[in-house]
Amino acid sequence: MTDAPPAPQPTPQDPTGAILRRGPFREGDRVQLTDPRGRLHTIALEAGKQFHTHRGHIRHDDLIGAPDGTVVTHSSGQEYLALRPLLSDYVLSMPRGAQVVYPKDAGQIVTMADIFPGARVVEAGVGSGALSLSLLRAVGDGGRLYSFERREDFADIARGNARIFFGADHPAWSVTVGDLVEMLPQTVEPGSIDRVVLDMLAPWDCLHVVGDALAPGGVLICYVATATQLSRVAEAARDAGGWTEPQAWESMVRGWHLEGLSVRPEHRMHGHTGFLLTTRRLAPGATAPARRTRPAHGAYGEDYTPPVEEWTPEDVGERVISDKRVRRTLRDLNRDAERTSDARAGDERGDLRPGD
Questions:
Q1: Of 53, 73, 120, 261, which has the maximum CB count within 10 A?
Q2: Neighbour-count burial of 281, counting CB atoms closer than 10 A to its CB (0-12 exposed, 13-18 middle, 19+ buried)
Q3: What span, in angstroms and rounded, lies between the C-alpha atoms of 202 and 97?
Q4: Is position 315 within any domain?
Q5: How far is 97 from 330, CA to CA, in rounded Å?
Q6: Do both 152 and 20 map to the same domain?
Q7: Do the beta carbons of residue 143 and residue 117 sit within 8 Å?
Q8: Measuring CA to CA, which residue among 238, 235, 217 is closest to residue 282?
Q9: Domain total of the chain
């Protein structure tokens, strides 16, 4: 048995995590196995270990040192395709506490909010860190992502997921545990932020704070689950002034079946996950031109006033995550991080794998 390939050494030109996205499989790498039926299994490679199914196993040693895109044979004779998970694969399989932002929405947020390399971005809340990974990829090592999360256990899960994906703590990221309204003015200078992403129950409560933080022309994008929230944040932005006319949309993704002449839409599709709303910060003292289109008759009613009730996750149909599940997720994340760190440390020392 030959030695495992040496771990490639990052160069100053390599962004954080890039070195883990190329080259042969190494100990500690996460690998996605696809069976003949298209079912996915994600494993972290460890020398001497085996991945078991009800029909047999695959030896991790058969993958360590193999190139990305390898086909490996199961002990039952079935062939599995082995690939590094893409970011979109990782966020759907990673440990989670809160519900994640799905890749189709994360892609829309990065593009429609114009998240660029070197940008200074504020994010609230963090949840399990799915959107944070896309934002960190977009701003790069030279940008800044200021993330705010009310729950410390969720923040710990997000940090753990990012640490496994990038292989280290990302230099552009800071996570603050606390309320955005209270903590943002203590964290950033007024007018110093390029983009703000709000994934929270009541984004309208934060408009005055993020408005002070955003530079003129900066983009605010809100991700909300219900039409009631969408209407509420749009009206709050109009009433507050200092913002361009809000734009809102949702995206739905439908896959297609491709086999010979049988080309048709899939029976299932990714339907509604959330609404996105964008608006931009006006220059100090500027007033947006009046809208030419008038609201539909009766859109507001004679005595329309926005409700002032307190919102809860249950109000928007979010599944309540038990504390027990969060603790278990944190425990699993810490275990995986320790195994990955130990494997990569041994690889850097040039240790031989068992049996070499």
A1: 120
A2: buried
A3: 20
A4: no
A5: 9
A6: no
A7: yes
A8: 217
A9: 2
Which pLDDT value is given to residue 115? 98
Residues 93 and 230 in one domain: yes
Residues 6+ apart with CB under 8 A from 36: 78, 79
For residues 336 and 164, the answer to whether their CB atoms sit within 8 Å is: yes
Quote the distance between the C-alpha of residue 280 and its chain's center: 23
Q: Give the list of residues 6+ apart from residue 179 with CB closer than 8 angstroms, or none.
A: 148, 150
**pTM of this structure:** 0.81
pLDDT digits (tens, 9 = 90+) for 161-220: 999 999 999 999 999 999 999 999 999 999 999 999 999 999 999 999 999 999 999 999
Contact 57, 74 (CB under 8 A): yes
Q: Per the structure block, which two tokens stand in for 138?
A: 């977009």
| Cα–Cα dist 300/46, whole Å | 61
- Token reading at 197: 């992403």
Rounded distance between C-alpha atoms, residue 207 and residue 181, angstroms: 9
* Single-letter amino acid, residue 253: V
Boundary of a domain, candidates 85, 103, 132: 85
**pLDDT above 50: residue 354:** no
Q: To which residue do tokens 């771990």 refer?
A: 7
What's 57-70 look like in SS3? EEEHHHCCCCCCCE
